[in-house]
Amino acid sequence: MRTENELQGVTLLGNQHVQYYDNYNPGVLETFPNKHPENEYLVTFNCPEFTTLCPKTGQPDFGHIYISYIPRERMVESKSLKLYLFSFRNHGDFHEDCVNIIMKDLVALMDPKYLEVTGWFMPRGGISIYPFANYADKEHEELKKQRLREQFTLNIQH
């Protein structure tokens, strides 16, 4: 069981009076200590209801965001991640920008060994967009290159 000291920075989980930000807010993200930093393991989040706004028209864009990472010392707390992703609701940016912003914010927050963010956005004007961004420390550079190459094949199949 986690100690109070280990949960010190986790303020949103279990809080019934949480504020939902509908404008981009990376400050809502929280972390907790990884109890297994010696293990190489993968954590994946699936957000099937991601929304943002077109920066030109202001119309809503709907997408599916996948986040996978190999943690180091810190891990992102899932409720804070949910609130963070919700904060894009009224954020006007292109799909590619949103995916890269999410990746950079999570890298700055956790300093993971490896992290990738994939967006599967619903068609607008008959075109779907599937941006992919990833980050790796020096030990995981080959994984970063391999995963990027794989995305070319995966995206063509859909």
Offer a few descriptive terms.
158 residues, GTP Cyclohydrolase I, domain 2, four-stranded antiparallel β-sheet, two-stranded antiparallel sheet, 3 helices
Describe the structure.
With 158 residues, the protein is of the alpha+beta class. It has a domain of 99 residues: GTP cyclohydrolase I, C-terminal domain/NADPH-dependent 7-cyano-7-deazaguanine reductase, N-terminal domain (GTP Cyclohydrolase I, domain 2, 2-Layer Sandwich), CATH 3.30.1130. It is 27% helix and 26% strand. Strands 2-3-5-6 form a 4-stranded antiparallel sheet, sandwiched between helices. A hairpin with a 6-residue loop joins strand 2 and strand 3. The longest helix has 17 residues. The protein starts with 30 loop residues before the first strand and ends with a helix.
How is this fold's topology laid out?
Blueprint: E1 31-33, E2 43-53, E3 60-70, E4 74-76, H1 78-86, H2 95-110, E5 114-121, E6 132-136, H3 141-157
Antiparallel strand pairs: 1-4, 2-3, 3-5, 5-6
Q: Number of helical runs?
A: 3
Largest sheet: 4 strands, antiparallel
Number of strands: 6
* Structural shape: flat
Ranges where pLDDT stays below 50 over 5 or more residues in a row are none
Beta-strand content estimate: 25-35%
Order of helices and strands: EEEEHHEEH
Terminal CA distance reads: 42 Å
> How are the strands of the largest sheet arranged?
2-3-5-6
Averaging pLDDT over every residue, what do you get?
Answer: 92
CATH class category of the domain at 26-124: Alpha Beta
Oligomeric grouping of the chains:
single chain
Please state the structural category.
alpha+beta
CATH architecture of the domain at 26-124: 2-Layer Sandwich
CATH homologous superfamily identity of the domain at 26-124: GTP cyclohydrolase I, C-terminal domain/NADPH-dependent 7-cyano-7-deazaguanine reductase, N-terminal domain
- Tell me the Rg in angstroms: 16 Å
Helical proportion, percent range: 25-40%
CATH topology of the domain at 26-124: GTP Cyclohydrolase I, domain 2
